[in-house]
Specification:
Length: 888
Amino acid sequence: MVLSRRLVSPCRELILVGFAILLAASGARAQSLGNAGTIQGSVTDQTGASVPDAKVTIKNAVSGYTQSTTTAMDGSFRFTNIPPNPYHLEIIAPGFNDSEQDVQVRNAIPVQVKTKLDVAGGVSSVTVEAAGADILETDPSAHVDVERNLILKLPSSDPGGGLSQAITYTTGGVVADANGLFHPLGDHAEASFVVDGQPISDQQSKVFSTQLPTSAIQSMEVTTGTPDAEFGDKSSLVAQITTRSGLGSGAVFGNIDASYGSFGTTGGGAGLGFGSAKFGNFIAVDGIRSGRFLDSPEFTPFHDVGNNQTIFDRMDYQPTGKDTFHLNLFAARNWIQIPNDYDQLGQDQRQRVLTWSIAPGYQHTVNAHTLITVNPYIRKDQFNYYPSRDPLADTPATQNETRQLLNWGVRADVSTTLGHHNLKYGMDLKQTRLLENFGFGITDPTFNSPCVNSEGLAVGDTAVTAPAQCAAAGFEPNTPNNPLVAGAPFAAALLPFDLTRGGRLFNFHAAANINQYAFYVQDAITLGHLSINIGFRLDQYDGLSTKTGPQPRAGLAYNIKKTGTVLRASYARAMETPFNENLLLSSATGTGGLAQNVFGSVPVPIQPGFRNQFNTGFQQAIGKFLLVDADYFWKYTHNAYDFSTLLNTTITFPIAWHNSKLDGVTGRVSTTNLKGFQAYWTLGHTRARFFPPEDGGLIPQGTPLASGVFRIDHDQAFQSTVNLRYQRKKNEEWIALTYRFDSGEVVSGVPDAGAALALTPNQQVTIGLACNGVFATVASPLTNCIGPGGAQGLVTSKLLTLPQGGYGPFASAENDDHNPDRVKPRNVFDLGIGTDNLLHREGKRRYTASLEIANLTNVTALYNFLSTFSGTHFLQPRSMVAKIGMTF
């Protein structure tokens, strides 16, 4: 089967014209990139004379971000690459009184600070907020600030997935899923990453792509509230990432480290930065190899070796105080064995992902109030999935895939401050080129059998090719109207691709372009204690389908300074776009997936959707040591997206449901740094209700999709993360403890106890299935459960909640909306101990060492089990990783 479509549009011309216009308008002159800000200023005495060699420090008490510099001979200083936040600025100079003031960094426009110091012993004048007020943010949208030091000390390890794990462990309302995936606030992976101004809205889990290594990250702002107008595509969570830079460092700095741990995990990395006031470069090279690279379908990993290598380079050139040129280069590779379970130990399926990215950037400061930013980019993911050398060794099917995802474009905007207004207007133009090649064939004669036996089990007689032949062979037809059939009925459309019944491989090839144009304007208005954000975004999506989406955005926040309280509320209309990975094949299958037609009917392309989102919340400062942040969200989405997983592979296909209703609560309680001790607690409650019908996907067999409203596996009643950490003075010994609680995701593949009785013996043993307390074994699986005197027995599982139903007197299954099957709750502890100065030496060169223990108590738990949307995956068993390194 071949599907090919080339979309001709003015996308390329628009990109080039837009780029040229903005570049010409700049005249030729910028500052910190992306969402990062700049603080610059001068220090003088009361006579106006410059004060050189004064120490200037900025701090954010909640995130822990700090940066220091000294004034030049003319008394000037500059901080770049600063995350938007309130900061406490301190100036210390010999012979003068110390000076303090609070500074707000709201965007990339440089903040000007001019300070006059009083001679020591004189009266000092400072501008500082009341206690607790300087840790508040009058921002209408809920977000979390994550600083490099916290990322490095999160005591958990996920090979090739450190960025996803950092977001999951620091952000409330994010439900953890396997293989570096996460569900932000009820959605499946509806997340955008903006790296130094480069937008990335494609999947960032290691089974789809390769992630930016955490060693390259300086800071991160993770927004879970309503997005500003500049953000679109995937906006349930927006992570604005600022990378490390050598600009202004004045010296060479870097690190070298090596690690070894459980499952034969070995790794290492090196970073090197250098720079002056005009030029800077930072490069990070990392690699890791592990015997448990992916989250496996069994607690003990089989065939799960993988490795990851990344190289990242950031170059900055600032020829004048008004111009900055920038270049990000990124290349990475994942090579992964696909882990096996006990029912298919002979498989040797593998996967490789190659990623590269080139992202130049330019900024010009027109004047003290206006900044122009231009960010062109090009990025490519190459995905290869390899079957076993003997296709019949793959069970229940063999599959192969080669796909490419290339996107290129430009994001450009103008930021300006005018009185109470902070305006930003710009455009985001891009083209995504898709290429898909896919092969599939059934290798298990019972997988799509036309017949079942008297117990409703599929029959492996390859001579029978149609339900009409079953009666003559002594079997029952595997049809929807047969009450014996518990699973999916025989799909005649798949018979031509049943290799056990003389079929052939299904082959698919397609190529297409997705063109997207977005224009936006937003204004942040400050009126005393009140902040108002108003914005408008217009998106044009031109792909397999076409849609235009006008999107108003509005929010307000009010700071009650007497009580240290910020109240906020916001609304956003957003256009949601389909996932690009395997979009062509998934769109060609139409309603019900491949099994319904194999292109025998008119395909229904997956189309863009729209969302109405409401948020309300507050921040409360308790003294100057504690900050409480809580937010309520409600989202209604027409065309709600997810993925369907193909059997026991990592190959997934986007699907769209008619609509979804999501609501819940996120929260975070954070302390400031209390003499080396700092802590936070994040929490989340999410209800994710999805409504059929479903469109697209590749669901050849398995549990039928829901026919009514249901809870999808993004739904979790409660999620909580507590992080406690303490470090001695002078960056010496530290200890960090993380406690994570998850109440359990919904299990779609095993809806009730009756479905569990139909599992294979190995699957029953895996989940600890029992009837009246007697556990199933491989030799003696459970097929029914009868209690004393012939009464209904109790079917239980160690790992699933298993609502009773689907067998015996309980003929009806569980309630998919109000009482779905779930993974059982889990409590997981991670511990890290280490030192940033092993030899307690003064000076720049220091030796580091640490030991991290993930899943300290060795809890056996699942992310999910036989899920239509994510498959089967166990949490990582207890794992230890030792690291040693040097910083300079």
